[in-house]
Design brief:
InterPro entries: Acyl_CoA_acyltransferase, GNAT_dom. With 265 residues, the protein is of the alpha+beta class. It has helices at residues 9-12, 25-31, 76-87, 101-109, 145-154, 162-167, 209-222, 237-245; strands spanning 2-7, 38-45, 48-56, 63-68, 94-99, 113-125, 138-139, 171-175, 178-188, 193-200, 228-233, 248-260.
Length: 265
Amino acid sequence: MFSHRLITHHTIIELLPNINTEQNLLFYSYLTQRKDKAQYVGQFMNSQLTAVLAYFSELSFPAFSFFRVEDQDIFLPELIAFTRETIQLDESAVCGTILCQRDLELFQSCGLIKGIPQRFLTMKHQDESKLLEAHIAKRINENEYSKVIDFLHSGEMRFFTRSELENYPFLGIKEGEDFIAVGGYHFYDSQLVELGNIVTRLDYRGRGLAKRLTSELTHLGKKRSPDVYLGVLANNVPAVRLYVGLGYQTTMELYIVHFTLSTAI
């Protein structure tokens, strides 16, 4: 017999030792750096935890992370329905997450996926000798936050949150008083460093700014953790080549998906 309930962070943190970070990077972030803003809905079979759907409230859309425990049977429609009612989201809401191939097929089998999933690569830095010794970016200060937020929004940074800018180091390159490139992190501590929010203004692309900015951010990230990651759409071939050229290697192939909370049960 299966059942559902909200799980406290104190309880769910017990999962950490059993989580493969590289395979479950997003869920790992929900248990660590996003824990203060996340809610966890658990599915249990005979009192044993089998799956978790975690909700994060700071993005511009309902953001989730899905985690299944081992190879347990999952009753996804029931988990989705309970989550919708518990978090009080509209059935028509379009949500976002990142899934591996197996979990994508599970969501598809329940008719939850909207649109075409986008292949997404998790990349880990492996070769420091390929990084540039660039020092052209400056640390962004609090007085510049509004400009940086506008710049990132204009670059369609959908996964950016203001708290990242406030809590993690961001670097910027200026031409006069205007930003032409900005970069920072989605996660930044000894548990998890992931570069993100890297944007170059359209009319300055092709000049190597992103390459130098990524190098500086990677150097900075290595001071917090030996393991530094980033994510990129697989079809963004120029960016993938840039990251490979800086010593990054693909560790996981995943899918960015949109899904609904509408179920047939």
